[in-house]
Amino acid sequence: MVSHAHFDHLGDAEKIAERTGATLIGIPEVLSLCPGAKNTHPLNIGGSYRFPFGYVRMTPAVHSSGVAGGLACGYVISIIDGPTLYYAGDTSLFTDMQIIGAKERIDYAILPIGDNYTMGKEDAARATQFLKAHNVIPVHYNTWPVIKQDPEEFKQIAESVPTTTVKIVKPGESLVLSK
Ligand code: NI
What we know:
alpha/beta
C-alpha cells in the first residue's frame, strides 16, 4: 500500500512488487509510475476493497501526491481476526480523522510527527484523540534535520489521554501487533 509518490514513500515499491509478485495498492496516478509491478490494485479516496487478508479503505490525506493528477492518501487496514490499523501517510491534521475514529476501532495508528512536511507532535497528539486510537506508532521524524523530533515528547503529550499507548519503534526494530 503506497500513500503517495514522494521518493521516501514510494521507494523500492515497484522493484519489490516485481521481485515478489506482491500486489501493489495505490491511487491510479501513483501506480502508473510502477509499470514493472505485475499485480496492482487501484483504489481511490473513500473506496474500500476486501482482499484475502482483510479489507482496506483508502482515506484522504492533506499532502501533495508527488505525481500530476494524483492525491496523497492514507489507509485503514482491517486484518481478518487481527487488529485494525490506520496508516495516515504524510498529512496535516484534519477534522475528518474524527469520522475515521467513529467508524472504526483503531487498534494502531501510524502517524507522522516530524513537522515541516507533515503535522508535528502536538497535532499528531490531537489526531490521536480524533481517531480514538488505542496505540500510536510515531513515524516520519529524524530522517533529516528539518524533521528532527523527540518521540518521547510526543509520547508524553499523546499519553495525557489515559487510553492511549505510544509505541516508539526504532529503525530495525519490529513490533508484534495484536488485537
Ligand atoms: Ni511526502
